[in-house]
Amino acid sequence: MKHPIRWLSIIVIALALSGCATTDQGGGAAAGGQEGQTAGAQGSETAGTGSSGDMEGSGVEASGAQGSGGFTSADLEDPSSPLSERVFYFPFDSSQIAPEDVETLTKHAQYLSTHPEVSVNIEGHTDERGSREYNLALGERRAQAVADVLTLNGAAGDQLSVVSYGEEKPAATGHDEEAWSQNRRVELVYER
Amino acid sequence: MKRLQRLLLAVILGFAATQAQAQITVDITGGALGALPIAVVPFEGGDAAPEDIAGIVREDLTRTGLFEAVPREDFLARPARMEDVNFRNWRVIGADNLLVGSVERNGGQYQVRFELLDVYAGSRMVGKRYTASGSDLRRLAHTIANEVFRALIGRGGGFNSRLAYVRAAGAGDARQFRLVVAQADGHHPQTIVTSSEPLLSPAWGPKGERIAYVSFEAGRSEIVVQNVGTGQRRTVAQFKGINGAPAWSPDGSRLAVTLSRGGNPDIYILDIDSGETRQFTSHWAIDTEPVWAPDGKSVLFTSDRAGGPQIFRKGVRGGDAERLTWDGDYNASADISPDGRLLTMVHRRNGQFRIAVKNLETDTTRVLSQGPLDESPTFAPNGVMIAYTRTHGGTPTIATISVHGRAEANLIQGNGDVREPAWSPE
Fold first, then answer.
1. Cβ separation of A134 and B288 shorter than 8 Å?
2. Residue B72 belongs to domain spanning
């Protein structure tokens, strides 16, 4: 038990997801009327499955086991697909992933698990406050937390590479909370 | 000696007063209360020289916070040698010491001489003469400042040391990172590495010949050791995950580094020649930013094992890590003074990141800088001043502040962001 906190968070996430997963499977199969908020996303997943026929097939078929899989690389470009959401934000000095982001990451994990040929760079970033090397470590902790969610939900370890840039590559250049909140982030960068 | 005692007394009183008020106080007067008053007379013939030698000496001395320069406007005379000095003229304007000198062109070279005088004793403390080229005059001025510092304080001033720092300029794809080495006052900057990917955490080897730093040139962090004179460089750590925060052992044979190859960031000791690593800390928390104690027996580092980041110390041969900082919920990026007595760090207070100094013997912490986003403190080899990245008013600059907080100066600014100063050994 070298990493009690991380393992703990994985367990917590796992518990949360096992709850989500059953709901998803039920809702996904039975048309998404039960929860208005998730209905849109599920609708687009269905569309995704339909358009994926011309891709390398095995992934699409395997997605059946996941219940709500069936993403294709086209989803990465589709603004209505959860896969288009590839930046996740964090509070200061924290690597806590927001629950709605865990849901989105689950979709990315499904895409990865059904497309073993795809790999993704997980880039961790921080805002400019505090010390640079500590931020480098914090950025990695954030990226690692995202990687853990992806692996836990079916992505293979060799599909993921984690890199931290700390505060060195800000998305916004200001010196206020508005900029900082945009910079405390993890970006998924799919390899093409 | 009398002056040194007086100075020490002032310092002790200053610390006592601080302790009486509170654990931490912000003490920035900008003035130089308790500093030694010295009159630095413009050198005779200096107008024709490419550098203002007296001006450079004066700036070097006052930045330490240990000296107060008597304003030139107060001078009643401008002697260049002791036999021309009327000491009463200098007593009356409150100068304890007087520096006079001259610079004279001789062919392609300059002949420079100075005398440091004790105004009350009416005697010469030290006097020397030099020959230098025009481009060496600034370095020569730093040498003279060293002579004055040594004569009055009793040890080296370190004014001929160098500052390494990172400059980042340009936006988007045109962004460029440079590792720059300059004289200790920020002048004569020379770029030793240019990269389109981030460079960070420069650290000088103990002899001032080599710099270790972190480079993202390969798209991920690696630790590079570069010979400053020859430019020869070698990647010494490229493990999976973070390769960061290099810190030299006092004998120059090892680097303490941060690696996350074991799953999360821990400190490792890397033997530079063999490349062998030994895990030094092993904890689920973030352990990073190592710095060696000057005696080489322990390593200080930042860890968030207690919640937020705090400074810890652990013996190189083993033992438990001991927490050193208790004031506030964020203390990181430590550096230790050459005598091992003072710790400087980034300290968060009321949401502002400032440079603080902790006296490890008295356990007193003082906040020195104004914030709000200051970082990367590094001790000067003279141990009485700190360079850091100062962010007061937006664009970062590299500034110095005396450990007593009395003297502040902006050293390096402009053309993009400047940051992460690392002060070379003397």
1. yes
2. 31-153
